[in-house]
Amino acid sequence: MKIVGFLLQNTLPFGLVEEFLGFIKEIVSRYESEDITDLSMSKTTASKVARECISTSLKETITQDLKCFPFSLSIDESSDTFGDAYLAITAS
């Protein structure tokens, strides 16, 4: 019930439930309950981790894939009110 409630409250798709449940099980099996209880993270920290850690390895993976397979690109550039610039590239 709690998982379905979480999906509903956060307007997440029900198709996510199996992956979400698997993620919860992995976290519970890897970490002590005290570590999970003490965990905290702000939106700013999560954004920084995504931008500075995850995006680097994701960029490398995408670049390697693009080098190996034929593709065409669609590019869109934008910026937000905070001055951050974004470049979206779709390869198909």
Main beta sheet strand tally, sense and closure = 2 strands, antiparallel
Specify the overall morphology.
Answer: extended
Extended strand count: 2
Structural class of the secondary structure composition? alpha+beta
Uncertain ranges: none
Write up this protein.
Strand 1 and strand 2 (85-91) form a beta hairpin. The chain is of the alpha+beta class and 92 residues long. The protein folds into two domains: 1-39, no CATH class; 43-92, no CATH class. It has four helices and two strands; from the N terminus they run H-H-H-H-E-E. Strands 1-2 form a two-stranded antiparallel sheet. The longest helix has 26 residues, at 43-68. It is 59% helix and 15% strand.
In short:
The chain is of the alpha+beta class and 92 residues long. The protein has 4 helices and 2 strands; from the N terminus they run H-H-H-H-E-E.
Give the helix/strand layout.
Blueprint: H1 2-9, H2 17-30, H3 33-38, H4 43-68, E1 73-79, E2 85-91
Antiparallel strand pairs: 1-2
